[in-house]
């Protein structure tokens, strides 16, 4: 007979081994947290097998510490090997006592010489869940159902113990948290538990908690939520820990956590299952703690400035105050179509008319637009309005606000984003849009007097415009093309053309421009502010111009708001107003690469099974019911035309110079002023974001590509497209059907890591 030990790794990252004789498993070990511990278990069995086999039938009191114990187990017989320490290390079942003894003899004859082998066996999530369900059922049958517990004592959090160790040393504390790891040392275990403040090591010893309680504890899983009472101490290695006296299982986790060594890295899963992201990635939790503190400090600052926080409607008949396409819904009770607000502006101005003088709101707004690194269809906006001031007053307030928040949350007024330092302590630069365009493009729009001249200039600089665009619109296109990317340090860009500012006061010195500024940092627009238009006659005329633009195809144009005009006719004092993008502010102050990283639950394209479960209706084909086996899709290739294969051969050396890599789509957005181009921000495995532009917008919306794994050529020289360097090429498959080109972006298994090279 030939025997061997086979070590297996389960899907939850734990290890076990079994002894196989003639390729048949005759006995199995308990579960080990680490492979090294599992291998030591094998060696212990091999060492013990050299000793004479002792047999003790259950009930034989003469054998107080038997090497083998044979006992009845229902219709079968169970046998267990004990180490010299008394710890069970190998067990199995047989049909009878005689068979059990025969197997024991086989183990004694084979174990010492049996080699070790590694066979990774990963259980499915359903199998792991069933194992945990069985444990829960056993607890329930024993009258220890954790789900009947309604509350738990929590005297301290982990950081409080760590920060106040000298005061708490040798004193009892009670912690509640989730088991994140475990190190099995026989009659003593170390576990790490996590609460909202961090992690803490807990030492659990059988002699302290009791034998029965310790046996139950050994069956608990990583992910279980527990209560620990014990005293604070420091281990020999200097780690602050809790020595457990009492343990209580509060919640049984039925699904395993992500594999602990690699954590949760897949961005699509992280965004969809934020609860797992928060558990596995402490830095993510820190980001959202900072976000909460940022909003708290904004409110604190505005309190000192004597502003009043208010709430205004989300469902509105007229979604105005910004250039954006709204979401629409239907209110059944009134049989009316309503929109979700795109801005907070018009209702807050009504309150200024009502005499509240200083008001602000922090709230969600909704814009029916694409998803990219800086845009989400629903986001948090703050708007504030102050009577008896203008846009200069808003600039001063913005400087004070940003300095206060950065200092309070980060402890410094110098912030670093993606390796670039921005200094809030210095006076923010103030520059007009005209001067900014002249500075960075060399074009002086003061010398441009007619629309024809502006269009000619745009043509010369290859800037796309539409027929409805006026001279001011083209100036703004020049600003977007040449200026924005340079505005890294805090900068106020002032005095916008009237064509793009329908709610702003004209400059008395030049009625073609308005008293408006946009606040920029890191090349991003962070805030938008006006000397608010309070002339109801001028406002009506501008609404009329917006209606004309809507009629010409601008879906983002404002509509006339008659009630707002009535409010202006009552009379609104001179007022300064500003809107802050809270999410972008949070991105900067937390060094987060994408807006989804600062939104707890960003908007995602629903999964098909989720759609079905939540009665979500979309334009995709109906999903097949779970209880009906789906038939393979019948794809008609009869009308497909493909390009002829190349007749010329390329030598292998030339071909091998092309570097094909798997890349992960971190973000995707439509390129402004282009109907074809999508801008991809990609993870290529190097740690630095790669930008590639691809003309596939006709075939895909950007939001449906985020989180996908694609193939790219990464060693092509940068190519400027719409003023953006495209560093590589994404691979697509192209064919024709009935004379029309069809394209499919090549997307591969998400298990393939970013940067994996194709051979």
Characterization of this structure:
The chain is of the alpha+beta class. It folds into 5 domains: about 5-120, PH-domain like (Roll), CATH 2.30.29.80; about 130-250, OB fold (Dihydrolipoamide Acetyltransferase, E2P); about 285-425 and about 490-600, 2-Layer Sandwich (BirA Bifunctional Protein, domain 2); about 430-480; about 640-750, Nucleic acid-binding proteins (OB fold (Dihydrolipoamide Acetyltransferase, E2P)). It is built from 20 helices and 39 strands. Strands 14-18-19-28-27-26-23-22 form an 8-stranded mixed sheet, with helices on both faces. Strands 30, 31, 32, 33, 36 and 39 form a 6-stranded antiparallel sheet that branches. A 5-stranded mixed barrel has the order 9-10-11-13-12. A hairpin with a 4-residue loop joins strand 16 and strand 17. The two termini are about 45 Å apart.
């Amino acid at each position: 007979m030939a025997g061997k030990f086979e070590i297996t790794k389960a899907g939850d990252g734990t290890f076990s081994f079994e002894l196989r004789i003639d390729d048949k498993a005759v006995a199995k070990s308990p579960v080990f947290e680490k492979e090294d511990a599992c291998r030591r278990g094998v060696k212990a069995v091999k060492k013990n097998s050299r000793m004479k086999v002792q047999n003790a039938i259950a009930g034989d009191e003469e054998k107080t510490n038997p090497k083998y114990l044979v006992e009845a187990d229902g219709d079968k017989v169970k046998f267990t090997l004990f180490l010299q320490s008394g710890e069970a290390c190998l067990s199995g079942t047989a049909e009878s006592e005689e068979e059990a003894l025969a197997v024991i003899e086989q183990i004694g004859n084979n174990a010492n010489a049996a080699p070790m082998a590694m066979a990774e066996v990963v259980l499915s999530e359903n199998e792991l869940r069933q194992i945990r369900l069985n444990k829960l059922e056993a607890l329930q049958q024993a009258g220890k159902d954790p789900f009947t517990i309604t509350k738990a004592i929590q005297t301290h959090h982990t950081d409080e113990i760590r920060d106040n160790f000298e005061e708490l040393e040798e004193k009892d504390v009670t912690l509640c948290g989730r088991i994140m790891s475990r190190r099995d040392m026989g009659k003593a275990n170390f576990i790490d538990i996590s609460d909202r403040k961090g992690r803490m090591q807990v030492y659990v010893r059988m002699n302290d908690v009791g034998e029965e309680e310790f046996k139950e504890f050994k069956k608990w899983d990583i992910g279980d939520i527990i209560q620990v009472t014990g005293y604070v101490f420091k281990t020999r290695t200097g780690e602050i820990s809790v020595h457990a006296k009492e343990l209580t299982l509060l919640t049984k986790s039925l699904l395993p956590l992500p594999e602990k060594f690699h954590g949760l890295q897949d961005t699509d899963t992280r965004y969809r299952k934020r609860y797992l992201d928060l558990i596995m990635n402490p830095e993510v939790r820190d980001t959202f703690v900072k976000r909460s503190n940022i909003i708290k400090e904004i409110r604190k600052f505005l309190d000192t400035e004597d502003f009043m926080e208010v709430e205004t409607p989300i469902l509105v008949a007229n979604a105005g105050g910004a250039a954006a396409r709204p979401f629409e819904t239907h209110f059944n009770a009134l049989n009316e179509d309503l929109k979700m607000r795109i801005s907070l502006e018009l209702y807050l101005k009504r309150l200024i008319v009502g005499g509240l003088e200083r008001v602000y709101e922090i709230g969600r707004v909704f814009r029916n637009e694409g998803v990219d690194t800086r845009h989400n269809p629903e986001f948090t906006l703050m708007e504030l309005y102050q009577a008896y001031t203008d846009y200069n007053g808003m600039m001063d307030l913005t400087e004070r606000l940003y300095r206060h928040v950065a200092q309070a949350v980060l402890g410094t007024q110098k912030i670093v984003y993606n390796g670039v330092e921005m200094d809030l302590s210095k006076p923010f630069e103030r520059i007009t849009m005209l001067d900014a365009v002249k500075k960075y493009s060399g074009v002086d729009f003061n010398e441009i007097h007619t629309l024809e001249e502006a269009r000619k200039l745009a043509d010369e600089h290859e800037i796309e415009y539409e027929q409805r665009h006026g001279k001011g619109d083209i100036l703004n296109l020049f600003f977007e093309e040449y200026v924005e990317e340079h505005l890294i340090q805090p900068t106020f860009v002032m005095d916008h053309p009237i064509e793009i500012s329908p709610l702003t006061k004209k400059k008395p010195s030049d009625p073609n421009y308005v008293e408006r500024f946009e606040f920029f940092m890191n090349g991003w627009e962070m805030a938008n502010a006006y000397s608010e238009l309070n002339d109801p006659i001028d406002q009506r005329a501008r609404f009329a111009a917006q209606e004309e633009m809507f009629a010409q195809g601008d879906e983002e144009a404002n509509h006339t708001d008659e009630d707002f005009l009535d409010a202006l006719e009552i009379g609104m004092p001179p007022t300064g107003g500003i809107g802050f993008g809270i999410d972008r502010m949070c991105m900067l102050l937390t060094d987060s690469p994408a807006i989804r990283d600062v939104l707890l639950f960003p908007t995602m394209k629903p999964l098909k099974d989720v759609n079905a479960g939540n009665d979500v209706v979309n334009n995709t084909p109906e999903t097949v019911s779970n209880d009906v086996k789906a038939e393979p899709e019948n794809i008609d290739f009869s009308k497909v035309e493909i390009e002829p294969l190349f007749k010329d051969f390329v030598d292998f050396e030339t071909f091998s110079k092309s570097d094909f890599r798997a890349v992960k789509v971190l973000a995707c957005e439509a390129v402004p002023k282009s109907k074809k181009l999508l801008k991809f921000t990609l993870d290529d495995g190097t740690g630095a974001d790669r930008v590639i532009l691809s003309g596939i917008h006709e075939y895909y919306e950007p939001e449906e590509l985020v989180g996908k794994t694609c193939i790219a050529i990464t060693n092509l020289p940068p190519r400027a497209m719409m003023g953006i360097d495209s560093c590589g090429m994404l691979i697509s498959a192209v064919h024709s059907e009935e004379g029309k080109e069809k394209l499919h972006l090549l997307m591969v298994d998400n298990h393939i890591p970013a940067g994996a090279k194709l051979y």
